[in-house]
Amino acid sequence: MNIVILAAGQGKRMHSNLPKVLHPLAGKALVSHVIDTARSLSPKTLCIVYGHGGEAVRTTIDAPDLAWVLQEPQLGTGHAVMQALPYLGDASTTLVLYGDVPLIEAETLKQLVHAARDALAILTVELPDPGGYGRIVRNDAGVVVRIVEQKDATADERSIREINTGIMALPTARLAEWLGRLSNDNAQREYYLTDIVGMAVAAGLPVRTAHPQAASEVLGVNSKVQLAELERVAQRRTADRLLEQGVRLADPARIDVRGELVCGRDVFIDVNCVFEGKVVLEEAVEIGPACVLKNAQIGAGSRLAAFSHIEDAIVGPDGVIGPFARLRPGTELAAGVHIGNFVELKNSKLAAQSKANHLAYIGDAVIGSRVNIGAGTITCNYDGANKFKTIIEDDAFIGSDTQLVAPVTVGRGATLGAGTTLTKDAPPDTLTISRARQISIPGWKRPQKAKK
Ligand code: UD1
Ligand code: CA
Questions:
Q1: In the chain, where are the structural domains located?
Q2: Which class in CATH covers the domain with range 2-218?
Q3: Which end of the chain has the lower number of beta carbons within 10 A, N or C?
Q4: Where does the protein end up (predicted)?
Q5: Within 6 Å (CB) of ligand 1, which residues are found?
């Protein structure tokens, strides 16, 4: 089939400088949801009709399999499809989708396209409140005869609750003729795509209807209110999918997945966590409340306590992380690593069983196994212009409040005394300490404020 995605509408009611179809839903542009679903149907051609000011849509979304069609000015949905005609392949069916109806499911579209083999097929749904939509007019035998827009409808027609979702599958061979015959003699002075339904009936071609599994599939976005409503629908869908896979969610209404979340067996996720990009949680991982994970992999059996923030990082199995831990890009933790509160890691590797439990900054470091990093330890990795590496070998013990001025190496089994400022390599199996000797001065007096 051919697929045409209509995305030329302005989206005035979004009150935004960003074109409507670029607004994110579950971390992905509205139109990208539609494009991805369209791709899953392997169309012969995939056209996107975009409008004036929509250049940003094209540059943001462009890919080799997309044909871009500028519609300027925008004279209606029929006019929009007409602009795409020269780009359509010779596939027998052309499917029309809306760029601002993001939650449509591939399964629904397959049924619609199936219904269109020797017919024109429209996706319809019955709504308790059909206000604003085009209505499906059927004859006494229940056969569809035409679609009437709200603004052109009689009072009787407005009482019809079956509405046009706008999504339809059309016989490509008839399109040019039908679109050529459209007129804009209607309440909105637009060329309505919906008018071809009446033409199909007149030509003796059957008109069939298909219906979505859930009405939420065909909800459109015209305002921030609707965008927020659809976000909840999308998040709930993802949460239900996770629950069905066996993930335990403290509350399926309080999780946000803005990308892909892959979970092993017996994963638990507490409330208010945000997952972005691709996140993998292996078997029996537990995520505490209010954690943020972006492009991360968490090894089997690891536990993240509340408010941990993890980006472009890998946590090995059986890790104990947080609360308030920050793992920045390039962090790689091996098995059984403990990272405690207010510890920031960047571009650093920690081998198995190493611990940094309190208040530390570890940047550009390679740390061996069973190393203990004391509270307040800082790798001074940056001189204002260049970054330098810190190496800490297996079984080293870094005393509290130590600064490691990189480049520097702490040898295997070495101990650094608390408060050390390390500027030269520390030899293995040795205590290195750099602080001044402690003295007490008898009779010393604090400075006094002058009496007035
Ligand atoms: C359209 C349908 C209506 C249906 C409703 C469902 C027609 C005439 N009416 O009405 O039966 O119930 O959708 O939401 O088709 N667009 C363009 N170029 C244009 C006009 C629109 O690309 O010149 C795109 C818009 O970006 C949008 C879609 O087509 O994605 C629908 O446009 P919209 O103005 O929302 O259509 P409605 O008047 O609501
Ligand atoms: Ca609309």
A1: 2-218, 239-432
A2: alpha beta
A3: C
A4: Cytoplasm
A5: 6-9, 49, 71, 74-77, 79-80, 98-100, 133-134, 147, 149, 163-166, 192-194, 220
Residue 10: the pLDDT is: 81
313 strand-pairing partners: 296, 331
pLDDT one-digit tens code per residue, 142-181: 999 999 999 999 999 999 999 999 999 999 999 999 999 9
- Residue-wise burial string across 98-116, b where 16 or more C-beta atoms lie within 10 A, e elsewhere: bbbbbbbbeebbebbbebb
For 240, the 3-state DSSP assignment is: helix
CA dihedral 293, 295, 298, 299 (to 10 degrees): 180
pLDDT in tens, 32-79: 999 999 999 999 999 999 997 789 999 999 999 999 999 999 999 999
The list of the chain residues with pLDDT below 50 reads none
Alpha helices of 116-192 — where are they, by DSSP H? 155-158, 172-180
Cis before 73? omega within 30: yes
CA neighbor of 112 nearest in space, from 223, 217, 239: 217
Do domains 2-218 and 239-432 share one topology? The answer is no
Q: Could you give the C-alpha distances from 392 to 35, 111, 335, 409, in angstroms and in order?
A: 49, 61, 17, 6
Tokens read off for 88: 């359509």
Residues carrying an active site annotation: 358
Mutation probe of ligand 1 site: the residue of 13, 77, 120 with most atoms within 8 A of C-beta: 77
